Amino acid sequence: MRARENGWRPWILVLALVGCGESKRPDEDNGRIADVTVEPGADHAMAVPRDSAVLSLARAAGGADGRQYTVAPPASGGVIVGRIGGGSPRDTSITPTHDLSVCRPFTQSLVPSRDGGVGNSVVWLVGVAAGPRDDAPRRVRVLLDGCRLDPRVQRVAAGGTVMITSRDAMTTRLQFVDVGGASASRGTVLFNDAGQVVPTSDAAKVPGLVQIRDDLHPWVLAYLAVTPHPFVAVTSADGQFRFDNVPPGRYALVIWHERFGVKQQRVRVDAQVETRIDLKF
After folding, report:
1. Is 3 helix (H, G, I), strand (E, B) or coil?
2. Reported pTM
């Protein structure tokens, strides 16, 4: 079937999306729920090159005809309820090598997990031309404390502001760069002492997945999902996410995790139907 007939952009097909979880509609009495279950190794979803898939967040807004995302809530949208699994609690021990008066050894969970879910996964839809207004926060905070950034992963609306606070009495040079190399640096924030607060709007100027890193302390990392529309989520520790009022259509669902990489899946959304997705890394 041709890409034009499916409403897909050609570049989405190039990213090797395979299989389609077709909706199974129970009787009306059962609530009209469509189930899409993806197990490891199944044809519905597959791991894809990390860089090429992550770049799709920067291009996620807009339909097959090239229009940019517009705010126009559908008269009758669908719902996507998903869960990302396959993870287990994994703590990483960090042993700093310098500035030891501030940077003491600590343990950090890179895979928050509860009941087998994978937390801190970023999930987004590609190819949405119109829908509800983005509900991502327009101002977010990042805290540098004890030589670590918190939160590890969060979302912010495109055009928003990132407020960075440092509690560490040391020289820190934070770099904001696109994951996947979509563009040049999104800016640099320099700290020299504890108590400084620096806002930046450059980091969230345009959609994309952004890494915050300290080029003086390489163990200092965090991520921003700069959203082009409301259909971007960061999973909780149980791996769950939800998208409401999704315009009916066929989309690419992309899932990224800093440790596990990227997966993609085709998703069909029907009006007034709850589509359930269960995907495992």
Report:
1. helix
2. 0.79
